[in-house]
Amino acid sequence: MKRNFPGADDILKQNMKNNKKIIVTGAAGLVGQNLIPLLIKDNYELIVFDRHTKNLEMLQKLNPETKCINCDVSEEGEWSDEFKDAFCVVELHAQIASQKSEEFSKSNVTGVSNIVEACKKYKILNLIHISSSVVISVADDDYTRTKRLGEEIVRNSGIPYMILRPTLMYGLFDSKHLGWITRFMEKIPIIPIPGSGKYIRQPLFVEDLCSIILELVEREPKNQTWNIIGREKIYYIDLLKMIAKAREFRRLFVPIPVFLFGLLLKLYGFIMGKPMFTKEQMNALVAGDIFEVQNWWDEFNVEYTSFEKGIWKTWHSEESKYAEEMKSPH
Question: Whole-structure pTM over 0.70, yes or no?
């Protein structure tokens, strides 16, 4: 794709040499909470955005040298002025779960469009867009459709970009997915599993994705899309057993029919005021996607972290006490 800006390669190299300012959107989620300390360690000047106040406050508490802005990038505002003089934008924000279709479109489409417009205005020459492996899955739901649209907006923008599609992520500060299940295990001795539990997951340790982003921050973007898929194929029920072992939980895992699990979801959502996860997420879980694995670890100079090692590191780090305070944004 032809770039919008003349002399883009020369400008990028000069910016990388003289400028250390990076914008990170959706910075207070799973990826951002793990990425920001690494960027600070490399002496970058960080301006970060997130609309979830409590999680952003925690990010600020743990990383006081970071400029944190509480805003919603799906709404126009003065936040876009912060893009001036930045050389790189890392786009992490996304609506992953909701009962309302418009919330997916607002974040995953309108939010991406607004970021692209800010990048054009201030001639940003390195946009790292974090998508999801759902765009190559069999799923057909609001999240999947809007993530595909978000990718197309980035590709058609004329801005130099790299798109990364991580699979199921886990790690420190995971308030959803495996993090939520782990906290559920702490309270409940009997864990219901939809169906047989023998559907393949290819989990990715969040620090591996962060290492890729660090590599891309100072690489010239090649307008490529990479599927960042975990190298291990593990049954979902075995993932949970490995988590229980790492946390020293003694739990009974009980497979139940998918339709009955769906009824339990509704009951839980009614009692707690919000669903454990949505029907669409459950359908995606049991769909049985097995993704082809690209050799991203060599391409981006990252040592792959096994699930066993990653889950142990998640719950035995000094920051794990803070991660317990993370709030799920849905």
Answer: yes
